[in-house]
Amino acid sequence: MAIVKMKRLRLIALAQDRDALLSSLLHVGCVELREPEGELAEENGAALLHHDSSRLADAKGDLTQLQHAIEVLDKYAPRKKPLLSLRPTMKEAELLDEAARRAALEKADAINGRARTIGQLNARETRIHADRLSLQPWENCDIPLETKGTSKTDVLLGAVPATADFSALTGALDEAAGAAEVRELSCDREQRYLEILVHKDCRQEALDTLRSFGFSFAQLKDLTGTAKDNIARLGRELDEISDQRNQEIEAIRQMSACADELKLGLDRVEQVVATESAKERLLTGGAILYLEGWASVPEIPELEKALAKFDCAWELEEPVEEEYPQVPVQLRNSKLVRPLNMVTEMYSLPAYGGVDPNPLIAPFFIVFYGMMMADMGYGLIMMLASAVIMKKSKPNGATMRYMIPLLGLCGISTFIWGALTGGFFGDLIPQIRGLLTGVDPASVSLWKLFDPLEDAIPVLIGSLVLGVIQVVTGMIVSMYMKIKRGNAMDALCGEGAWFLAFAVIGIGFAMGKLTWGLIGALVVLAIGNAYGKKGFGIITGVFGALYNGITGYFSDILSYSRLMALMLAGAVVAQVFNQLGAMTGNIVTFIIIALLGNAINFALNILGCYVHDMRLQCLEFFGRFYEDGGKPFRPLNINTKYVDIEK
């Protein structure tokens, strides 16, 4: 299959069957609900129908609560996770167990409550640290902080800038208010902290003098007792906070066994969110409900079987061509082609009614990738990594479920091309044999069909030939699509004219009259590109089409020379590292240098080959026929992150 056919679904059912109906649609998993805005826009629609209510906000709140609880456990009670592990499996009914979902939410609430307590303790600890820090400069003050003075004297606690001249300050204070005593309690880089005893009659004179030196009163709040007593009290409070926080953390750690239950609860709530979100797309008139959506054709028999259990009326219609931009797109291919979904989805899904490119790009992408890597050792690593990951963890994520199988397919291609070029981690085996036996490595190389370093020109020609094959394939697909849509003349005067021109050039070359062949090709292209144009537009249209076509085909095909370039680059880098290791004359250092160098080369090439392969597919190939812009098909179905559902 390719692009899955869709049908528009319209359904009217009893409002009392809403939850059961949505549960059935969730189980079938083949209907994408959409907003039926057209009915509300009609004259009587808004009076009879309105959007249904839902608990979506509450469900999202539950989801946030579980996510936060999982994050709290990961922070305070982290568990070692195996690098590769299979996800647990369960039945659908067990996943949708409401009692288990409520139990998970209760445990999440308990964990989050302790996390909130820890947050409050941390905030209180921060405030106490700040208070304690503000008291430390006054630690040498022996009098209680609430003491303002006696019947005859005032006590002034304050600070002046550290740059102030202390001797000048005391001298000026003695001169302005003789009955005063200044004591420096402490000093730091910014301020001097002072205790000043002054007679009440001289208070104002003393303050005027002190302000001239930048004096400011201490901000000690309404504290009682000495500074030392308060510092000691705050220290005891910090110890109590630390003990209480440790108790809360230990209580959270005791609940670490709930991590799997919380993750399962998260999957359970995800289904509630999906269902409640679907409810907001329903219209109701009180006793009945109305929904619209798109249903995938292969699952329609199962859908009809599910709907037959309800007292409802529905209809399924084929979308007309004008509706194609609104029809969601789902790709469905064989196991061999399915991994290429990653490439298509990274670019853009095809438009509904277009062509699924995956079966077309699969052979090209895999062959091109292997040609650029071209090393048996690298191919073995890719195949083994893919096989181990698929067996141990069976990835089911949006990207990994395609990436890992694609890695294995490209590994097979890489191994085959490596066998053809005699590459196994570059020239690792000949170099090892040379170190052990003293034989020249060049004389003991592995069997190869061709050497990319010595046969660069044939490799370049082969790369361009592969490019011609892919470009021609794109042209054929473009012609097919135009003819299918009733634009046969556009196809014949476009790609058809180019095919005829290529044939004329080939005949001229075979007959030894290449010049006449080129002239004939130009005439064919001129006639083809003049179709549908009038007047002066014929000249400009023909000239533009010829110029753009010739330069476009030439540049596109030339882009495939990167296949040869990356093959050469990978082989050269691997051999350079192997030769650097061999220069030491020691097998141990050789292995270390060679393995390190090949690891770097492998890491660079596995990404570089993917990027260049993607470029060839998305620019040179897709530009010929691909119509993008499809919207992904998002049906109401069971999606899980931490468990797999038994079918």
What can you tell me about this protein's structure?
- Among the domains are: 6-52 and 280-328, Alpha-Beta Plaits (2-Layer Sandwich); 146-219, Alpha-Beta Plaits (2-Layer Sandwich); 338-486 and 559-631, no CATH class.
- The protein is extended, with a radius of gyration of 39 Å.
- The chain is built from 22 helices and 14 strands.
- Strands 1, 2, 3, 9, 10 and 11 form a 6-stranded antiparallel sheet that branches.
- It is of the alpha+beta class.
- It has helices at residues 18-28, 37-41, 45-48, 56-76, 92-95, 98-135, 166-176, 203-212, 227-254, 259-279, 300-307, 341-347, 358-373, 376-392, 400-421, 428-437, 456-484, 488-510, 514-529, 536-558, 561-582, 587-625; strands at residues 6-14, 31-34, 50-51, 89-90, 153-161, 180-187, 191-199, 216-217, 283-284, 288-296, 312-317, 328-329, 631-632, 644-645.
Short descriptors:
647 residues, alpha+beta, Alpha-Beta Plaits, six-stranded antiparallel β-sheet, extended
Topology:
Layout: E1 6-14, H1 18-28, E2 31-34, H2 37-41, H3 45-48, E3 50-51, H4 56-76, E4 89-90, H5 92-95, H6 98-135, E5 153-161, H7 166-176, E6 180-187, E7 191-199, H8 203-212, E8 216-217, H9 227-254, H10 259-279, E9 283-284, E10 288-296, H11 300-307, E11 312-317, E12 328-329, H12 341-347, H13 358-373, H14 376-392, H15 400-421, H16 428-437, H17 456-484, H18 488-510, H19 514-529, H20 536-558, H21 561-582, H22 587-625, E13 631-632, E14 644-645
Parallel strand pairs: 4-14, 12-13
Antiparallel strand pairs: 1-10, 1-11, 2-10, 3-9, 5-7, 5-8, 6-7, 9-10
Helix pairs in contact: 1-10, 1-11, 4-6, 4-10, 6-9, 6-10, 7-8, 13-15, 13-21, 13-22, 14-15, 16-21, 17-18, 17-20, 17-21, 17-22, 18-19, 19-20, 21-22
